[in-house]
Every structure is written in structure tokens, then in C-alpha cells.
Design brief:
Elements (H helix, E strand, L loop, with lengths): L1 E4 L2 E4 L6 E3 L7 E2 H19 L4 E5 L9 E3 L11 E6 L5 E6 L3 H9 L2 E6 L36 H6 L7
Antiparallel strand pairs: 1-2, 3-4, 5-6, 5-9, 7-8
Helix pairs in contact: 1-2
Length: 166
């Protein structure tokens, strides 16, 4: 199936594929994720635009195994903004940037439920323009509600002035 987003025709395969299982409401499928991305695009795009993305994809839903993808799929529409970036280990990879609503809907079709923007722009991939804190280190879990970092440096944390995404 295809979805019309502005002037773009966006492929959305298996729109009823459940990505987030919900006991009461049946969960959220790819079409629902696409609707959500459209709904929050005005708030989301300023943080993604012009930044190469690493995608966390879950083709069998978040209860199944997922994977990280940096390379743009060969089947990507030609209107998706792509950028070739050099790897530190040699070679290069072509990544995508989510610059518009149509690209967000395309990402929903890929079951990309977590979008990880680079801290740098595509035009200058080795010059970060923002600092990103990843507060979910691998192998560590906590049952307490989020109230700061999971380490004992809370005095440092609370003295910072942080601007939240609103």
C-alpha cells in the first residue's frame, strides 16, 4: 500500500503489522506508528532534520528481536535525503536524514521505532552541534522511575540547567 503525504507517495507495507502489543486495545501497528509520527512531526523534525540517523528497527514488533541499521535500504524512495559518511574503520556508508513528514512515515513502514540522530549535521559529519546523553546504558536496568542519572552524581546533575523537548 502507499500513503499520500503532501506530494509524496510513501510505501507502507503490512500496515496492520503490530509493533507494540497492547492487551486491551490490540496494540499499535505500522499504520498507527505512521499516524503518530505525522502527529508529532512538528516537534520531532527540528531535532532530526539534516542529521544522519541510526535506526533501531523491530520488524516483528518490539517483543521480537530488533537490529540497528545505518545503511539506507536499496528500496528507499529517491526523494529520501541521503548522505554518504566515512566510517572511522574505513570505507563509507550511505545513511538517511529525516527532513520531512514523508520520510518519517517511510521510517514507520520500516518498523523504525527508535531514531538515533547523529550529534552532527550531514554537511559536517565530524563537527558535532549538540551533545546527547544516552541514559540507558547496556546491561543496566532499574525499576525506579527516572529522576536523574543511575549513578551517584546527582549533585552535578541537578546543578545543570537542561532544556527539555516540549
Amino acid at each position: 500500500m502507499t500513503v499520500q503525504v503532501g506530494s509524496r507517495r510513501v510505501p507502507l507495507t503490512h500496515p496492520d503489522k503490530v509493533l507494540f502489543d497492547g492487551a486491551r486495545d490490540g496494540g499499535i501497528d505500522k499504520a498507527g506508528l505512521a499516524d503518530y509520527y505525522r502527529l508529532v512531526a512538528d516537534r520531532m523534525l527540528p531535532h532530526l532534520r539534516e542529521h544522519p540517523l541510526a535506526l533501531q528497527r523491530f520488524p516483528d514488533g518490539v517483543g521480537g528481536s530488533g537490529f540497528f541499521a545505518k545503511k539506507v535500504p536499496d528500496s528507499a524512495p529517491d526523494w529520501v535525503h541521503t548522505v554518504r559518511v566515512d566510517r572511522v574503520t574505513g570505507g563509507s556508508v550511505t545513511m538517511l536524514c529525516a527532513d520531512d513528514v514523508a520520510t518519517l512515515v517511510y521510517l514507520a513502514g520500516l518498523a523504525a521505532v527508535a531514531l538515533h540522530p547523529w550529534p552532527s549535521r550531514a554537511s559536517a559529519p565530524r563537527r558535532p552541534v549538540k551533545l546527547i546523553f544516552d541514559l540507558d546504558p547496556p546491561g543496566r536496568t532499574t525499576s525506579r522511575p527516572y529522576g536523574g542519572p543511575p549513578w551517584p552524581c546527582t549533585s552535578c546533575w541537578t546543578s545543570w540547567t537542561c532544556r527539555a523537548i516540549r
